[in-house]
Design goal:
The chain is an alpha/beta fold. Helices cover about 35% and strands about 25% of the residues. It is built from 13 helices and 12 strands. It has an 8-stranded mixed beta sheet, with helices on both faces. It has a 4-stranded antiparallel beta sheet with strand order 2-1-4-5. The chain is globular, with a radius of gyration of 21 Å. The two termini are about 40 Å apart. Bound molecules: iron/sulfur cluster and magnesium ion. The site of magnesium ion has 3 residues, from loops.
Amino acid sequence: MKDLMKINHLSTHFNTENGTVKAVNDVSLRVRQGETVCIVGESGCGKSVTAMSIMGLVEEPGGKVVNGQIEFEGRDLLKLSKNELRSIRGNEISMIFQEPMSSLNPVLKIGQQIMEPLLVHQKLSKKEARKRAIELIEKVGISRAEQIADAYPHELSGGMLQRIMIAIAISGNPKLLIADEPTTALDVTIQAQILDILRQFKEQNNMSIMLITHDLGVVAEMADYVIVMYAGKIVEEGEVVKLFQSPKHPYTQGLLKSKPIINQRTDELYSIPGQVPNPLELTESCYFHDRCQHCMDICRTKQPVLKEVGEQQKAACWLYEEALVHA
Ligand code: SF4
Ligand code: MG
């Protein structure tokens, strides 16, 4: 599979009154064509900020991408002008969020909101855009599409609205869809339907998906490749079956102790004793050391780097440093 997007050494920081928060701290990853990459971790681990960085939505002056490249089909998104980025966003890369209501305009009819990008990006006529909007509403599994097109957002359920968001997101046949907790606010049955729709589009259009979630059931069901983030860093990554069968990092092992049940929604990840470190007080250490039952001296003073721990699997943990283990 061909690389679609490659992120190299991305760091995104936020300046707060109390200091700098390294929300994303030297993250490298790639998404291949037609692949679903899931980014998993507790809230505040940097998964959403990674997505916002890709979309150019990190807001200055507080937040800033301070380092790295985000290569999308060979072009560095961080070097594009606002206009160039805008045309990629919504066309080649689109994004859906947890709360569809917050992305929809409450005073515009659903149909108009689907038509808007078709008029702007694809230069369709009004008539063509309306026709395409109806098709898209049908495509995301909503019947009575004409009627829905003439409804206002508040007249639809959360599950319907999320389908509409997907319709908007896929209207330009994006190569990459970034979905940030797209089913977290929905009940289990609706969640399964939404995931099905995403999977269908991925298969039909050879689209890639970057799916951000805290829900391991969703990961098990959707992912080809999994990235586990903790305190702004990738602590483990790998092909989904390997990672679930044989997690290497103690954090991943902890997460997987709560066995995900497919189609059952979980509000929280299994809670590993202890707390995520204060992002303002990170030191040169393994950020997980306070919560790790395997913690060694070196873990408190030196940060492990992400390295190969098996075929298609990497972890950042001193347990896998040969020299140390055999010392
Ligand atoms: Fe635990 Fe040390 Fe590995 Fe960190 S580096 S996860 S503290 S064993
Ligand atoms: Mg988030």
